[in-house]
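Encode chain A's predicted structure.
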Amino acid sequence: MRRRTRTSIAGFGAGTLLAISGCGGGNLDGANVWILTGGIWDRVGEDIENYNEQAEDGQQLTIETFENESYKERIRTSIGSGEAPTLIMSWSGGPLAEYVDQDQVIDLSGEVDALQARVHDSVWDNGVIDGGVYGVPVTDVAPGVLYYNEALFEQVGLDVPETWSEVEQAIEVFNDHDITPFSMAGGSVWPALIWLQYLTDRHGGEEVFQAVVDGEPDAWSQESILYALEIMQELTEKGAFDETFMGVTADQNEDARLLADGEAAMLVQGSWVFLTMHDDYPDFAESGDFGWTTFPALEEGAGDPSNVVGNPTQFFSVSVDATEEEQQIALDYLNSWVYNDEMVQTMLETQSVPPLTDIDDHMDGMEDPDYLEFIDTLVDEANHFQLSWDQAVMPNEEQPLIENLENLLHGNITPQEFVENMNALRE
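Encoded structure for chain A:
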């Protein structure tokens, strides 16, 4: 699941924040780090600049910034050639597992214990592979959330659904009142991943997708994935989404607008939609009708209903190709600066929630912290936080995953064909 801000600045290496030095080992002026442009990364870049101002000469971090897709291409090439930056950014998942398998990042176990003690377990675990710590959280949490328009629920006399049977009832009742039950940006495809992940996890638990990440044979054919794919098609057939939902995109927040304008009753999207509503549709956001809650529980499911899906956060890993001096600079930064008080306060003021167990201390005195507290509680109480599938799978599976999901939503392939296509990538 991608935020709208990730594609706000296009072009390879756009928007460099600081002077750029050579990549990988041999950086005589300190260590280096590559980050993204836009959104939270602009604030991370400013925070690293603040770190550099107080660091000793030769102990600074040199920054280079990239647009999202350019970064993915460049980082794979640089790591493969032994020219990776000292700090490697990833979403964890398949790419991080690949780095570990190929001995391209160092085990940080025992090196970042103080930071680990401050981070929610459900988030921290995404950087742990085979018992070793290979990725350290560095940005905000972004779980999938069910948003709703309270006025529409009052109009039809329903409560916001907490279970899947109540979802099915709501779809029927809203359709009877000519109200679209759910806004869905099918044209962007990736918002449908949130649905697919939650349904799979609610049905079979986090072990189901873990089998995919672990590369188990025919892992895509598991019952819970097929179940979720079948439900996705049933939702389109039952009118859960508008007839034109495959033409709706998230790039311009069209799915959020449908909720704000009262054309749809609910929206399943990332946590960043809260800020989108306040920026783009303030009348609705401040009307008292804008609500949010967790994805409904599946009564017959084996999964833990506390589980959440989305982007736990982005992670920094330390390259094995960096010199010992560069690695130490990176460790000093991770231990002494990540989630410092000023950065945490900046994040909260822009409705970004860092994955910290002590976040309550930073929210004292904030006006209307309800949403921030909701997101923090959601993550804190989660038994498991599953990374977005398009980030979690191996790089060669990312685009086929999106393409197959798009074909499923269009009705061009069946759930069985979806899993066969994905399994075939591993043969």
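The domain at 4-141+313-375 is CATH 3.40.190.10 (D-Maltodextrin-Binding Protein; domain 2).
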